[in-house]
Each structure stands twice: as C-alpha cells, then as structure tokens.
Design goal:
Number of helices: 5
CATH topology: Adenine-n6-DNA-methyltransferase TaqI, Chain A, domain 2
Structural class: alpha+beta
Helix content: 25-40%
CATH architecture: Alpha-Beta Complex
Order of helices and strands: EEEEHEEEEEHHEEHEH
Strand order of the largest sheet: 2-9-6-7
CATH superfamily: DNA methylase specificity domains
Distance between the termini: 48 Å
Number of strands: 12
Radius of gyration: 17 Å
Shape: globular
CATH class: Alpha Beta
Length: 188
C-alpha cells in the first residue's frame, strides 16, 4: 500500500472560519430553520443530529462562508479543541452554520472526508491536530485555518481509502445500531 505525503492545503477545495462571535446571539435562535452547530454536534465521526439550535434562512445567508454542506468537515478550534466530524451525504439538512468556535472545509478529489476524519480521530492524527494548541486562557488552536492547512499527513490512494472507510463505516454502523437499541431498552 503506497502512501503519499500531502499538506492539508493540498487536500482541500475550500476552508472558512465560523462566524465572529458577535454575529450570532441567542436571540437569533428560532424553532426551525438552518441548524447552528455547537460542540455537542461534533461528538463522533459523523455529525450528531440529535439536537440543534436554528437560525432563520435570512440570518444563515448573512453568514455565507460559515455555511457547511453535506460532505464538509467541521473542526472545533477553541474550547473543546480537536473535535472533528464530517457531515454525511444523507444528513437531515442540506446546510448548517458552523459555530463561532469552529471552522469547516471541503475536501478535494484526493481524499475522502470520512478517511480524513478517521485519521484525525487516531492517536497520530489527534496529536497532529493538537500540535499547535495554546493553553493561555481558553484552550485554542493558534491561527486555526492557517495552522491546520500546514499540517502534513501521509495518505493512501483513493481506492485504498474507500476500502478502509468501508470497513470502519460498517463497524461504526453496528456501534450506532447497538447504541439505538440500548437507548430504546433504557427508555422502556
């Protein structure tokens, strides 16, 4: 299996920070609309869609570059740093607004979003992701998008990525199914 070394900047099409903190307030939340992400949505490999706050379509449109879509990856850069997940292609919503402590990016054809997320959940990947952490005040990644794009990783070809993601995805599906069963049993 051949691996090739890349800078993250060579693996992404687009990257953007979430909205500046003063652009979204609790009084912007509505009952339905565009989901506004927070750390509780980034607890696993895939976006956790159990609970959201929502913004109006108009407010979300004001935050254009902070909009994430299916297939995008979301990373927490401040607070509970290092959370990383992808938005699955079968997600409940077509678009989401990243939180003000997050950034989002879109992968190019060289890497599968799932593969990159699995990598950054591994001990080696987590270490790389957290390598430029500042512990002064609130934990944060220094210059998050710039630092992230400069990380170097070795990845296999796309076909090998597909095989790896297929195996990990199957295991993850079984885990998720067992968690649903346990939740239902506990509720009964």
């Amino acid at each position: 299996m051949a691996f090739k070394q890349y800078k993250i900047s060579e693996l992404i099409k687009d990257i953007s920070m979430g909205p500046f903190g003063s652009k979204v307030h609790k009084n912007n939340y509505v009952k339905t609309g565009v989901p506004y992400l927070n750390g509780s949505n980034l607890t696993g490999f895939k976006l956790n869609e159990e609970k959201f706050n929502f913004l109006t379509e108009e407010k979300a449109s004001e935050l254009g570059r902070a909009i994430a879509h299916r297939g995008d990856i979301i990373v927490t850069h401040r607070g509970t740093i290092g959370q990383i997940c992808y938005i699955p292609r079968d997600s409940r919503y077509e678009r989401y607004v990243t939180g003000n402590s997050q950034f989002r990016f879109t992968c190019n054809e060289k890497v599968m979003p799932e593969f990159l997320v699995y990598y950054f959940h591994s001990p080696v990947g987590k270490n790389k992701l957290l390598s430029n952490t500042s512990q002064v005040g609130v934990p944060a990644l220094a210059q998050p998008t710039t630092t992230f794009q400069s990380l170097e990783i070795a990845i296999p070809g796309i076909e090998t990525q597909r095989k790896i993601c297929s195996v990990i995805g199957a295991v993850q599906s079984k885990i998720e199914n067992n968690q649903r069963i346990n939740k239902n049993l506990f509720a009964a």
